[in-house]
Design a protein that fits this description.
10 strands, alpha/beta, 6-stranded mixed β-sheet, 36% helix, 274 residues, 24% strand, Rossmann fold, 4-stranded antiparallel β-sheet
């Protein structure tokens, strides 16, 4: 990160409650978060910890119950569709399931052309659009001439995730949320996807936030790590501080739950439901 870190996204007292009365669930509990330009951050927690709900609020997909989100130092305003679309030019996501990330009725050409239009390139000559789409596909080791007129569901899971990164290459957002982006693809594709995301981050200087339960991934890619439990951050700091020298029992348990092939597995913390 640069010496002078600029805050790009922050929150104050961010809270999300689902349901009412005895049925209500506090999914995000007064979270304060500060993200800097060009930073790679991981928000780590088990299923149900609130990390995906937090990401959806920051993306503008759901509204918080209380608290504020600030983008580039100003209170976020996504009160109209036009303002939301402007916000989404700067903040994008890659989701866990590549098979449900696309409209099945849109061909790959339409997916990529939509990105060019979002960046104001709708009136560019067709030849220039094709050049841009080919460049984006080449960045993720895909050949546009082999993809044109195809539908995303005709690709493998790894290819679909790479196509999602090609979208990001065209959009060039300031912030990217990657919600378990490698959990549904094989190990070889996983390393490739991570390398591509890190290369893209380096090229365009975007902030990347990984939403994950994989604490090993968090250590491998992150500048900063936030550990989330029951809607709250219980520990945060640099990757080395949090992963190598954890202070909170919850963080220590997450680390102890990672299987090691050279040690006997401790299953005493596993809870079985009847």
């Amino acid at each position: 990160m640069p010496d002078e870190k600029k805050v790009i996204l922050s929150t104050s007292g961010l809270t999300k409650v689902f349901g009412l009365g005895a049925q209500k669930t506090l999914a995000v509990d007064h979270v304060n978060l500060t993200l800097y330009e060009g930073e790679v951050v991981s928000i780590v927690g088990e299923s149900g910890s609130g990390k995906t709900t937090l990401a959806k609020i920051l993306l503008g997909l759901i509204n918080p119950t209380e608290g504020e989100v600030y983008f580039q130092g100003k209170k976020r305003d996504i009160s109209t569709q036009k303002k939301r679309q402007e916000y989404w030019k700067n903040i994008q996501a890659i989701f866990q399931d590549p098979y449900s990330s696309y409209n099945i009725f849109n061909k790959i050409d339409a997916v990529l052309l939509d990105c060019i239009r979002m960046r104001g390139g709708g009136k560019l000559p067709q030849a220039k659009k094709v050049e841009m789409m080919a460049e984006a596909c080449s960045f993720v080791n895909l050949k546009f001439e082999e993809l044109t007129n195809k539908y995303p569901f005709e690709l493998s899971g790894g290819q679909m995730q790479r196509l999602m990164i090609a979208r990001i290459f065209l959009l060039k957002p300031k912030i990217l949320f990657a919600d378990e982006p490698t959990s549904m693809i094989d190990a070889c594709s996983r390393a490739t996807i991570l390398d591509m995301l890190m290369q893209l981050r380096k090229e365009i200087g975007m902030t990347v936030i990984f939403i994950t339960h994989d604490i090993g991934l968090a250590y491998y890619v992150s500048d900063s790590v936030y550990i989330m439990e029951r809607g709250k951050f219980v520990e945060s700091g640099s990757a080395d501080e949090v992963i190598l020298h954890p202070k909170e029992p919850y963080t220590q348990r997450l680390l102890s739950d990672v299987p090691k092939i050279y040690e006997e597995w401790d299953l005493s913390t596993v809870t079985y439901s009847s």
